[in-house]
Amino acid sequence: MKTLTLAAALLISASSFATSVSFTYFGNEGGRQSYYACDYAEDQTAAHLETLGATNIDVRCNGGINNWSVQPVSVYATFDLPEVTGSAVETVEIEGDTFNPACGLNVRIISEILKKMTNVTVLKKNDSCAFATTNYYYKLNVAR
What is the tens place of the pLDDT at every residue in 16-35? Predict the structure, then answer.
């Protein structure tokens, strides 16, 4: 019985850092509809999670632009939250570029992730997306 209790305690503590985010992005910026491929949404979600210290990342997407239809993207990501082991803080900047900012989608991804990341403090941001081509910017402190 003692072994079973210990195993259960280890399982609970190991999974206590696991979390998930899920959302559907409808792509309305500036009165225009924007659609994205799931590959892009998955890659951006994974990249932002890695930047903020997440590990064991699994991102899945439904909808988007594909051979059969054009729909909003629905993203579901599971990941392990970073384990903050010290007092080290890294300042990280995330921003869109002029060639492919996908402002609304990236801002939505980042805002959903930030809801789960207790190790991140927003120092400065510009996340107002009048158009899909608007650049976004975040300056963040990430505890490591």
Answer: 489 999 999 999 877 788 99
pLDDT tens string 60-86: 999 999 888 999 999 999 999 998 888
- Domain positions in the chain: 18-143
Query: Which whole-number Å values give the CA distances from 102 to 25, 117, 137, 143, in the listed order?
Result: 12, 22, 12, 27
Q: Which helix (H) or strand (E) holds 13?
A: helix 2-15
CA–CA gap between residue 98 and residue 9 (Å, rounded)? 49
Q: Which amino acid is at 61?
A: C
3-state helix, strand, coil split of the chain in percent (to 5) is: 30, 40, 35
pLDDT in the model for residue 109: 98
Terminal alpha carbon distance of the chain: 37
- Residues in the chain, overall count: 144
Residue with tokens 């559907």: 24
